[in-house]
Amino acid sequence: MMMDWTARNLWLIPVLPLLAAGLSALARRRHRRFSAGLAIGSMAVALLLACAAFATAVRHSGTELSRQVVNFRWFELGDGWVRLGWVLDPLTAMMLVMVCLVGLLIFIYSVGYMAHDENFGRFFCFLSLFASAMLGLVIANSLLLFFICWEVVGLTSYLLIGFWYHKPSAAAAAKKAFITTRIGDLAFLIGIVWLYGQAGTLLFYDAGQGCLDKPALAGLATQITSLGVVVPTAIALLIFCGAVGKSGQLPLHVWLPDAMEGPTPVSALIHAATMVAAGVFLVARVYPLMALTPAGSHSGAAALVVIAWVGALTAVFAASIAVAQTDIKRILAYSTVSQLGFMMLGLGVGGVAVGMFHLITHAFFKALLFMGAGSVIHGCHEEQDVRRMGGLRKFMPVTFATYAIGMMALSGVPIFFSGFWSKDEILHAAHAWSMSRWPFYLGVLGALMTAFYMTRQMCFVFFGKCRLALRQTPASEQGSVALPGIPAPEHPQVEHPAEPHESPALMTMPLAVLAFFTVTLGFLGTPAWPWVQSFLEGEHTALNVAGLWRPGVLLVMLISTVVAFTGIGLGYWLYGRDPLDLQQTDVLERRWPNLFTLLRRKYYVDEIYEWTFVGLNAWWATACDWLDRWVWEGAVELIAALVVGIGWVDRVLDEQVVNRWFDETCRSLSTSGGLLSRFQDGRVQKYLRVLGLALVVLVLLLIWGCRAS
Amino acid sequence: MMNLSYNQIVLSVLICGPLAAAAVMCFIKREDLLRWWTLAVTFALGVFSLPLYFRFDLATPDFQFKETLSWIPAFKIQYAVGVDGISLLLVLLTTLMMPLCVLASWRYIQTRVREFMICLLVMETAMIGVFCALDLILFFCFWEAMLIPMALLIGIWGGPRKIYASLKFFIYTMSGSVFLLVAIVALYLKVGSFSIPEMMGQSFSHDFQFWIFLAFFISFAIKVPMFPFHTWLPAAHVEAPTAGSVLLASVLLKMGTYGFLRFSLPMAPYATQLFTPFILWLSVVAIVYGGFTALGQTDLKKLVAYSSVAHMGFATFGIFALNKAGLEGAMLVMINHGITTGALFLVVGIIYERLHSRDLAQAAGMGKVMPIFALFAGVFALSSLAFPGTNSFIGEFLVMSGGFSAILSGSAAVSQILIVCLVPGVILAAAYMLRMLQKLAYGGTRNPDHSLLRDLGFREVAMLVPLLVFVLWIGLNPSPFTRVMHASVEHLLEQTHQPAAAYAIAK
Questions:
Q1: What pLDDT shows up at residue A470?
Q2: Could you give the angle at which helices B324-355 and B486-506 cross, rounded to 10 degrees?
Q3: A353-383 pLDDT per residue, tens
Q4: Mean pLDDT of A293-300
Q5: Residue from A636, A637, A639 to probe the interface with B (highest B Cβ count within 10 Å)
Q6: Distance between CA atoms of A526 and A617, rounded to whole angstroms?
Q7: pLDDT tens across A587-600, in order?
Q8: Do B404 and A78 touch (CB under 8 A)?
Q9: Does B391 touch chain A (CB under 8 A)?
Q10: Which of A576, A643, B471, B484 could in theory staple to A572 by disulfide, Cβ–Cβ 3.0 to 4.6 A?
C-alpha cells in the first residue's frame, strides 16, 4: 500500500502554526507586522496542505486508501509502547480544510480588529498556538495525542478569553472556562485510561489493532461492568463527558457565554467555529465506539441515546435563553450552545455525516455572524448592548448584508442557505429515529426559537432608528439599564459617541468570503446530492433530484420551512414593526415578566452552581484547612503537650522523690564528711595529739594481741 | 581502565565530595568566595554524576557502581554503596537541585554564609548517601544525619517561627526514625547481617513481616508525608529559607517513598499485600484533602506545601497499585514532583525576595510588570496541575493507568470507588494552581503597586531554566527517564508478587 506524500507529511499542518507561535513569542512587542504576517503565512500554507490532503482523500474516497495512518512510538509503558500517530481520512480532511480556512479568514480579520491593541503580537502568538493544537487534534490518530491537543486547545482558550485580563470579568471567565471544561476532561481522561486498560492501545486505527478497528471493538463488546453497563458504553459515556465540557452541552454549558469576554475574533474562531466543535468532532471520531451495542443485543447503542437526548435538551434550553439576552455576543453564544446541541442530536440519531455536516456549515455561518458582530461592535465604538444599536443597515451596508446571510442560514431559511440543509438533515434523522419522537419535537421547537431570536437581534441591531447617540448618559441611568450578569462594554470610557461607521476592508473582506461559503456549502449535502454524507461514509454519490420528493424528506423540509418563517415572522411582528426605545421593557417582558426574567437570568444556573458547587467547594476547602489547623495540628500539639507534661511531671518526680533520696544520702554523707573533716583542720599539735593517741592505742592493741596469743 | 575506576569511585566521590568541600570552606573568609566555591563544587558534582546515567546498564536489576568496604567487622557492618534503577534518578535529581539551591540562596542568605553553605553541602552528602547506601546501618546514619543540617537551615535562617518549626520537624521525623531503627535491629537479628541486598527477597514469617512493615510504614509515612502525618510539612516549609524548602520538597520527601520501594515492598511482600488497601485509601485521602486544603490557603508556601501532600499521594498510590505502570508512574511522579515543586518553591522564593511576603494578595498582579517571571510561573503551575505535555501528566497518567490495570486484573485491593475518589484531586489541582497563577499573573482590580519590581535577573533565569527544560523534556519524551527503571521495577515486582502467589496457593 503506497502512502501519499500528503498523508506522510500531514504533521506539517499543525507544526507550521506552532513554529509561527514560537517565533512570534520571541519577537519584540513592536514587531507587529512580523507576528501577524507569520501567523497568516503559516495558516495560508497550512490551508494549501489541507486542501492537498482533502484532494487526496477525495481521490481515494471509497477505496482502501481512504484511511491512511502513520504511527510512531512515544514511550514504554508497562509491557508495551505508548504510540501516537496521525490519520488522514475523510473526516480529518474535511475538518482540516474547515479549520484552516476559517482560521485564516479570522486571522486576517483580527489584523483589523486588534489593530489598536498594544499586545498585538501576543494575540497572534496565542492564536497560532491555538490553531496548531486544534489542527493537531484533528489529525490525531491516538486518543492520547487527541487529549494532549485537546488540553492545549483549552489552555489557549483560557489565555485568549483572559486576553484583556485587566477586566476582572475576563479573568474570571477565563478561569471558569478552564475549570468547567476540565471537569469534563477528567471523566474523559478516566475513559481514556480505562480504554487503555481494556483495549491495550489508544491508537484509533492501527492495521486492525487500533481501538476503533473492528476486532478490538468486538472484544470490548463482550465485557460488562459491575454496574451492569457494557464496558464500551461506560467508556463512551466517559469520553462523551469531555465533549460535554468542551462543546458546552448541558450541564457544563455555563462557561461558553462567559467566554465572550475575550476579543471577538477569539469568540468567532474558538468559541463558535472550531474549539467548541471539537467535542462534536470527538464524538464523530470515536463514533464506532459510541455506536457499539452489547454482543447479541438489538436495541440501539445506549451511548448514542444519551448523546441524542443531551443534544436535544441543550438545543432547546440554550435557544430559549438566547431569546431574552441583550448582549449581541451573548445571544450568539447561546445560539452556539444550542447549535452544538443540534450537532450532538444529529450524531446521536443520525450518525457521523449528519452531525459533521452541520458542524461544517455552522462553523462558516457562525464565524460569519460573530465577525459581523465584531464589526458592529467596532463600528459602534465598543457597544455590545443590542438595545443601544439600531438602524445600522444604513451605516454598515456590507456588514448588514453578510450578517443577514448568516442570520438566514442560522434561522434555516430554505433552499439558498446552508443552515437549512444541514439542520434539515438533523431533523430528518430525528424524525426517523426509532427510540423516541421527542428529540424531533424538541429540535423543531429549538429551530423555531432560533429563527425568532435571530430576527429579534436583527431588528434591534440593523433596523429602526439609531439609538447609539442616546447612550452614555450619566452612570445612574446606565446602571439601571445594564442588566445583572452582563459586563460593561469593552472600553466604557468613550465619551462622545460618533456616528457608527463601516469597518475597514480588512474586516469586511473575510465576511464576504464567509458569506459566499455560507450560501454554497449547503448544496454539497442536499438530499438530492448528498455528497458530504457519502464522502464521509466512503460511498459514491450521484445527482438524484427525486431524493427531494421522498415523503419523509419532503415532510420534514416543509415543517422546517414553516418553522423558520414562523419564527422570523413572529420576531418581526414583535420587534420589527415598532422598534423599541432604550427605556422600554421588552415586548415579551411586558407579557410574561416572570418567565422573561427566568430566561434572562439563564434559568439561574450560574447562581445555582455558585451556591452549590462553588460554595461547597469553598466551604470544604475552609473545612480542610480548619481540620488541618486544629484537628491534625491539634493532635500533634496535644501529643507534644503531653510529652512536655510528662516531662514536667518527671521533673517534679525527679526533684521531689528520686532526687530527695539522693539528696538525703548526699546530705548525710556531707554531714558525716563534715564531722570527719574536723579531724583535718591543719593544726599540727592536734595531729600530733591524735597521732600520739593512735600510737598509744596501737601499742595497746599490739600488747593485747601478744598477750592473747 | 579509566571506565572501571570511574565506576568504582563515583558514588564515594559524590558522597564524600561535598563533605570535603565543606571542610575546605573553613579556610575561606570572603563571603563571595564562599558562594562561588559552593556553586562550583555542587555544579562540578552535578556534572560528575552525569556519566552515572550514561554508563548505567539498563539490562540488569542489580546494584551498579558498587563499592564495598568493611566498616565494623564484628557486626558485619559495611560501607556498601550502589545504585539501581530505583535510586539512580533520585541521585541525579539531588545533584541537579543542589546548584540551583545555591543560586537561590545567593542574595537571600546574608548572615552566616559559611555555616549556611556548609549545611547545604552536608545535606548533599547525607541525601546522596541515603539513596546509595546498601547497608542498613550506613543508611540509618545518613538518614539521621540529614535531619541535623535541615533543622539548622530552618532554625537559623528561617522565618519568624523558625525554632518551633525546626523543633517540630526534627522531633516529628526523629520519632519516626525510632521505628526504623527497631526494624533494622529486628532484621539484623533475623538475618545476621545489615546488607540490604541480602534482605530483599527473603521470605520472612508473616508475623515478622507484619511488624517490620508497620515499623517501616510509620517511619516512611511521616517522611513522605502521608495523611495524617503531614502537619510538620507546612510548618517546616513556611519557615524554611528557599533553599531549605526546595531541598525539603525535591529530595527529602522522596526518601519516604524511596523507603517503601527499597524496604517495605521487597522485604515484607506479604504484609505489603495486607496493608495495600489501607495505604491506597490514605493516598486518595491525601490527594483530595491536600488539594482542598491547598485551595484554602493564602500563604503561597503553604499552598505549595499542601499541593506536595497531594502529589505525594499520587506517588504512594502508584507504588501500592503494585504493577509496572503504577510503580514506574510513582517513580516518575517522585522525580516530577522534585522538579516541579522545587521550581514552584524557587518561584515563591523569588516573590519573597522582592516583596518580603508570601501572601497571595500582596503578590497579586506581579506578572504584569514581570512577564518573564509570569512565563516561568505559568509553565510550572501547569506542570503542577498535570497539564498534558508537561512532566506531571505522564506521571499521573501512568499512575492512573496502573490503578486501572490493577482493577482490571482483579486485584481486590484497588476498587473502582478508589479511582472515582481519586478524580476530584485532579480538578482541585487545576483549581488551586489556576487561582494562584491568575492572582500572580493578572491579579484583581486593585493590585498592590509593583511598578518598581524588576523582572528576573540572569541568576534567577539560570536557576529556573534547567527545571523548565526537564518539565518539557519529561513531558514530551519520557522514554529516557522511564527506560532506566524497567529492569529494577520488574525485579521488584517479582519479589513482591512471588510470595503473595505462594501465600495464595497455601491458603
A1: 59
A2: 130
A3: 888 888 989 988 888 898 888 888 888 877 7
A4: 63
A5: A636
A6: 49
A7: 777 777 777 777 77
A8: no
A9: no
A10: A576
Comparison of pLDDT for B312 and A433, the residue scoring more:
B312
pLDDT in tens, B117-144: 999 999 999 999 999 999 999 999 999 9
- Residue A277 CA: distances (Å) to CA of A134, A154, A430, B390: 10, 12, 20, 25
Distance, CA of B153 to chain centre:
18
Chain B residues lying within 8 Å of A140, measured CB to CB: none
- A628: contact with B, CB 8 A cutoff: yes
Between CA B382 and CA B440 the distance in angstroms is 14
CB spacing of A197 vs B408 below 8 angstroms: yes
- Is the pLDDT at A264 greater than 50? The verdict is yes
Residue numbers in A near B231 (CB within 8 A) = 628, 632-633, 636
For residue A677, pLDDT beyond 80? no
A172 vs B135 pLDDT, higher one? B135
Residues lower than pLDDT 50 in chain B? 1-2, 507
Identity of the amino acid at B229: F
- Say yes or no for a CB contact (<8 Å) between A193 and B401: yes
C-alpha span between A328 and A386 (Å, rounded) = 6
Average confidence (pLDDT) over A194-219: 80
Residue of B388, B408, B478 with shortest CB distance to A198: B408
N- to C-terminal Cα distance for chain B? 53
How many Å apart are CA A258 and CA A263, to the nearest integer?
12
- Name the grid cell of A87: 490519520
Q: For chain B, what is the domain count?
A: 1
Residue B500: its pLDDT value, please?
A: 55
C-alpha cell, A178: 478552564
Contacts of B397 in chain A (CB under 8 A): 144, 189, 193
Q: A636 and B486: CB-CB below 8 Å?
A: no
Let me know: does A192 contact A144? Beta carbons within 8 Å: yes
Residue B482 contacts A where some CB pair is shorter than 8 Å: yes
Taking residues A93-114, report their average pLDDT.
89
Give the confidence band of A341 by pLDDT, cuts at 50, 70, 90. very high
State the helix-helix crossing angle for B2-25 and B31-54, rounded to 10 degrees.
160
A191 pLDDT more than 80: yes
Q: What are phi and psi of A132, to 5 degrees?
A: -60, -50
Residue contacts between A and B (CB atoms, under 8 Å): 122
Using alpha carbons, list the distances in angstroms from residue B197 to A169, B21, B134, B141, B258: 60, 31, 7, 18, 15
Question: Across the interface, do B394 and A617 touch by the CB < 8 Å criterion?
Answer: no
Report how far residue A335's alpha carbon sits from residue A352's, in angstroms, rounded to the nearest whole number.
22
| CA–CA min distance A197, chain B (Å) | 5
Cβ atoms within 10 Å of A499's Cβ, excluding its own: 11
- Share the mean pLDDT of chain A: 81
d(CA B228, CA B226): 6
- B289 closest CA partner among B243, B364, B372, B230: B230
Confidence of residue A493 (pLDDT cuts 50, 70, 90): very low
Domain ranges, residue B262: 2-503
